[in-house]
Amino acid sequence: MAESLDPSICRLRLRRALREARVAKGLSQKDVAEAQDWSVSKLLRIEGGAVGVSTTDLRALLDMYQIRDPHQVGELTRWAQIARKSPLSRHRDVLSSEMLTYLNYEGSASVVRQWEPLFVPGLLQTEAYAQAVIETLAPPGTSRRIMDRQIEARLARQELLRQPEAPEMFFIVDESALRRRVGPGDTMIAQLAYLREQAELPQITIQILPFEVGVHRNMRSPFVILEFREANVEALLFVENPRGYILDRDDGEELALYLSGFWDLEGLALPAEETGAVIGRIIGDLGGQAARAA
């Protein structure tokens, strides 16, 4: 029976194989782009996993890298064909290529580790909270249709939580993200109540980093580390940059640095057993503020 392969894992394997083959030949990305009459950005997107690679382009690369073994060529071609079958491609019109890349890998992960200092993590957002965030952060002039499609994409992403083999998920959320009001009326209170429910699920661990910790060395942009079940598939690091895009990096030293930072945050955060009680207190505080403001 043929091995059943995940599109994201195929893309991950293919991008690494192509990059390793280029490096083995002593070629820079600029060398390859010029030889193929491509833009450098095209090769960067292929090696970064942001786009699939056509059969024609793959053949050109394999010929340039002198990869002619029939078995290897067949395997790489198969990976390229499967990699183009993205389950979230229907949202390509409203998601950046970087975000789409991240979501595809997230859907294939066996472990998700996320540090979020600003918002409730996207996987754990209610529809009302997601709508408020997307509408507030949308660039001026963004159409209602695009915002509605982005909300739809965020909710579709959460199907991952309901899959039979959902990944183990470890979230560390700054207290400020839970106390900052988002949306009208009881949007934030409903979001916190939902977050408390999700914290009870066996595959989800949520820890809160309290204000009392003060300044710490991991006060940086949100980041996610994804791990995979497949052999020979290394973990991936995704860091949000100032423009809001999600960039994928698989540099071993950088990954180790962020993973160490995540362990530090786990030690500073409140135990997961206290999460429900802490969220309950925050709900009470927000409810009291609303009553006083009425």
Description of the molecule:
50% of the residues lie in helices and 11% in strands. The chain has 294 residues and is α/β, with parallel strands linked by helices. The chain is elongated and about 70 Å long.
Strand and helix layout:
Elements: H1 7-24, H2 29-36, H3 40-48, H4 55-64, H5 70-83, H6 97-106, E1 111-116, H7 127-137, H8 144-157, E2 168-174, H9 175-179, H10 187-198, E3 204-209, E4 223-227, E5 236-240, E6 246-249, H11 252-268, H12 275-293
Parallel strand pairs: 1-2, 2-3
Antiparallel strand pairs: 1-4, 4-5, 5-6
Helix pairs in contact: 1-5, 2-3, 4-5, 7-8, 10-12
- Kindly, what is the distance between the CA atoms of the first and last residues, rounded to a whole number of angstroms? 66 Å
Please tell me the overall pLDDT: 87
Please provide the ordered H/E string of secondary-structure elements: HHHHHHEHHEHHEEEEHH
Strand content: 5-15%
Unreliable runs, pLDDT <50, ≥5 residues?
Answer: none
Helix proportion range = 40-55%
By DSSP (H or I, 4+ residues per run), the number of helices equals 12
Decide which structural class fits the backbone. Answer: alpha/beta
Report the biggest beta sheet as strand number plus sense, adding barrel if it closes: 6 strands, mixed
CATH architecture of the largest domain: 2-Layer Sandwich
CATH topology of the largest domain: Endonuclease, Chain A
